[in-house]
Amino acid sequence: MLALAGVCAGYGTFQALFDVSLEVRAGESVAVIGPNGAGKTTLLRVISKLIEASAGEITMEGARLNEVPAHEVIAHGIAHVPENRRLFPRLTVEENLRIGAFHRAARAKFAERLGFVFSLFPRLAERRAQPAGTLSGGEQQMCAIGRALMSGPKLLLLDEPSAGLAPVVVQSIFALVKRICGEGYTVLIVEQNVQQVLKVVDRAYLLETGRIKASGTSAELLASQTIRKAYLGL
Amino acid sequence: MEIFDVFLLEAVLNGILLGGLLALLSLGLNLVFGVIDVVWICYAELIMIGMYAVYVLHVQHGWPLVLAMAAAVAIVAALGAALHQFVIRPVLAAEPINQLLVTGGVLFFLQAAATLAFGIEFRNLGVRMPPLQLGEMSFSTPRIIAFAVALAGVVATYLFLTRTYAGIAIRAISQDRAIMPLMGVSPGRIYLLTSALGGALAGLGACLLVLQYDVHPAIGLSFGPITFLVCVLGGLGNLLGGLVAAFIFAQFISVGGFFFHLEWGYVIAFVFFIAVMFWRPQGILGSRG
Known about the structure:
The structure holds two protein chains of two kinds.
Chain A: E1 2-11, E2 14-24, E3 29-33, H1 40-47, E4 53-60, E5 63-64, E6 78-81, H2 93-100, H3 104-107, H4 110-120, H5 122-126, H6 137-149, E7 155-159, H7 167-182, E8 186-191, H8 194-200, E9 203-208, E10 211-217, H9 218-223, H10 225-230
Parallel strand pairs in A: 3-8, 3-9, 6-7, 7-8
Antiparallel strand pairs in A: 1-2, 1-4, 4-5, 9-10
Helix pairs in contact in A: 2-6, 6-7
Chain B: H1 3-36, H2 43-60, H3 65-88, H4 96-118, E1 132-134, E2 137-139, H5 141-163, H6 165-173, H7 187-210, H8 220-234, H9 239-259, H10 262-279
Antiparallel strand pairs in B: 1-2
C-alpha cells in the first residue's frame, strides 16, 4: 500500500533521514520504533508531505506522492494523527471532527462517519459540544484519532499516541490502537513505548539516527538480543 | 417623562444604533488580524473605495441603489483578496513592523488614487430619508437601516464561521496553522478566503456609511481610528470582544456627547479607552500578554 524507497529528508542543513526504505501492506499494522530524536516523527511528516523528501520516492497504492501538495495527501487515503494530538482547543469536539472531514470527498459522508466515530468512542458523543481543550489527555487522543478517521482513510499514521499520558491511560490507548487495526484500517505507528507497541502490531522497523537498523515481525523483534537490551531493558 | 430623560434615552438608543455599525466595521479588521495575524492599516481606505463604488455605480451610472451596493461589496471583497495575494503574502513571514508598513503604503496609495480619480470634492448619494419620530424622540432612518443591516451582517458572519466547513477552517487555522494540511486544508486558500470576507465586511460597512456621510478621499481618517480603537479595546483578534467594545465605545460617544457636547463624546470615549489600556492592555476580552 505505502512504500518508501531511499528517502532522505531534513530541516535546512540538518539531515534527519538517510536512505529510508520501508513498506506497509494493506491490512497490516506496522510500527516504527526507536529512541528519541531518531527521526520517527520526521518520517511521518515526510509521508504526509509536511516536509519535502530531498531524495527517494514515496508511493501510495502505486501513486507517487513526491509532487502531491500536503493538503492533497488526504485524498490519497492517508490520515495523520500528529504528535501531541494537536486538536483545535477552542473548537468543540464536533467541530474538530468536522474539520477532519473537510476534504471534498469526505463531506458527503460526514454524518455516517460521525456515527461511526461516536460508536467507537462514546465519550466523544457525550462531549461533542465541549471545547476540545477541556478534554482529558486520553479523550483528546480519542478525538485526534476520530478526527483522522473522519476523512475515511485507508492508512492511518499515528505519531506517539501514548506520549504524555498517564500509565493507566497508555494501556487503554494501546487497546484502542489494536481495535482500530481490527476495524480494517492499515496503521503505521511511531512509538517510543517499544514493549507495548510490539504487542499490538504485526511488524516493526527499528529507526536509529535516521537509518533503518532492523526490521521484522513483532515476535522476531521481541526475541532479538539488541532490542531486548536497548529498548526492553532485559 | 421629563424632557431631560427623553433626550438621555434618545442618546442611549442612538448609541446602540452607532454600536451596531461600529461592530460591523471592526469585525472585518478583527477577523483578518485574528486569523492571518496581520493588521490592515488601510482597512478604512478599503471602506472609502467601497463608498466611491456605490456612488459611481448609483449616481454616475444610474444603477439601482441595492444593486450598486451588492456590487460594491463584491468589489471590496475582491480588493481584500488582492491585497492579501499581492501585498500581504510576500511579507507573511516578515517582521510585523514591515507588514504594518506595506499596508500603510497601500493606505496612501488608495487615498492618492481616489484623489486622482474623483478629486477632493465631497460626494453624496443625494438620498434623503425622513427621520423616524418616536414620541418626542427622533432617529435618523439611515442609522436605523445601518444598525439592522450591520446586525444581520454580524449574525451572517457568525453563522458562516460556525456552520460551514470553510468557516470552521478559518477558526481552526487561527489556532494551529501548521497542521492544517493534515486536515486536507490549504492554508493559503483559507487566508485568501478570510481576506475576501474581511473585504466584503468592509464593503458592507461602506454601503451603510455612504447612506449617512459624504465620501471624499480622506474619509478613512474620520472612522478608521475608531475602528482600530474598538478592535484593540475588545482585544485585537477577538471577535466577541470587538462586538462588546463597539457597543461600550458607542455609548461613551453618544451619551458623553449628550452630557457635554457632541465632540466631547469622542474625547470621553478616548479617555475611557486610555484608562482601559492601563487596566487591561490586552483589551476587555483579550488574552494576549
